[in-house]
Amino acid sequence: MNKLYLWGIIITALMLLFTYMSVAGSEGGLNGDIVNMLAVAGAVALVIITVFVVIKYVRQMQTDTADGKLADEQWDGIGEYLNEVPKGWAIMFLLTIVWGMWYFTVGYPVNAYSQIGEYNEDVAAHDEKFEAEYASITGDRLIEMGESVFLAECKVCHGINADGIDGKSANLNQRLEAKVVKYVVENGSNNQLLGTEMPMPDRNGLFNSNTGALITDAEIDAVAAYVANGMSGAGADVFAGTCAACHGADGKGMDFVAPNLVNFTPELVTNVLNHGKKGVMGQMPSFDRLNAKQKEAVGAYIADLSK
Amino acid sequence: MFHWLEKHPFFFAVGVFVVIAFAGLIEILPNFAQASRPVIGTTPYSTLELAGRHVYIKNSCNACHSQLIRPFKSETDRYGHYSLSGEYAYDRPFLWGSKRTGPDLMRVGNYRTTDWHENHMKNPSAVVPGSIMPGYPWLFTNKADVDTAYAEQLTVAQFFSVPYNKPVPMKDGSTKTVKMGNSVAEANALALAEAKVIAADMKDQDVKDAVARGEIPEIVALIAYMNSLK
Fold it and tell me: Given A34, A209, A266, B135, which is the most exposed site by the fewest CB atoms within 10 A?
């Protein structure tokens, strides 16, 4: 028997022995689950194939002789045969070229990964889900949604309880504070609160029809307290004489003319979210990036807060 | 030809280099040239904004705050449109940051305003309960360095052709011109005019007084910079 085969058998036996020992020594051993048996089968197959292949090529090296015509030039004494390319290799080479052309013209351009593409798909899927689940919610669920949007976007300025954090922004638990009313009466307002461009004049354009004169400081204080107090107390006559013409006798506003001064309305909140606001408290940026339903929900939540 | 190349390794190497370089050029350069242009609507920083940017860097804001919005739904919901490379055209250096201890500030100008920044910089936890950001009270007394900002403007205008005093196209089709002074005095006057607009929206009387005296506290410059991040 050839020495080579002998070595092959010895090495195979040794490797199989190691395989047996390492599996038998592990948890579960040869009586373990199917994973152990599969591992053994794999190992046995690998060992036999490896030894078989190695023996084949070692024998080939020992017995093969080169033939064919040598190329003219040599590189540092190393020559090259002018043999034909092996057929299998040549076919694979041609197929690779074909595949390369396909990949270059169709494969990559059609299937290429794009981060922005994945983002767009994400957004589209989310919008679809939002549309299906939330587009038609009303009532308590809408208010709930408004609260969650409020806690994500609004609480950094208005506070978790919507109390305006000690006057740093508007307290949304009440419609208007006296200083806000006072500031608006003195300076006018053009916050596009109704989506129209109709501005409210400043104090130089506000007449008290009871006295027939421009509104005075005392009257401003009175009407500010009256409005902030939920339309009660002193100052009712000033309101009736000056403000009621646009804001209505009950202060509930008029469509396309003036906003509601008694309650928050969803339209009012949506308008503030769209345009932002600037007044005595400071400036509020617009929150245009919320979608229509989210704005409606915030409106419902805030209207509910001050109910 | 291949036979010839095999016999001349130097020219073989040159050929390999040319082929690979060509592939690189046609793949990388066109996209790079396009993406590195300023996005329409991106404007150079004004003198005061640039001074504020220096304050931002000096106080190492970028150690905790990134300026890079990734294209994920969760990020764009919170911070706005994902960042485009052309939006950083006038950032030298860019302040992408690598860790968000605080939120991203790439578009903070869209959803925070002057008075909020004022409250927040004095005492962050007063407006954001549980915030671990420290207060920055010294910004209200330190003076912003307008001269250095102006020096940077001059440099980038000269060496990188940053379009100061030239109309820059905006998204709505109009143009906007960011002014740069012709002298240090003029630059200071421009910065002060800008500072007055910011200070008018602030509540701190010391800051208002300082601006009225012609001084620019760092907080004013920083807020100008914050408001410019859109």
Answer: A34
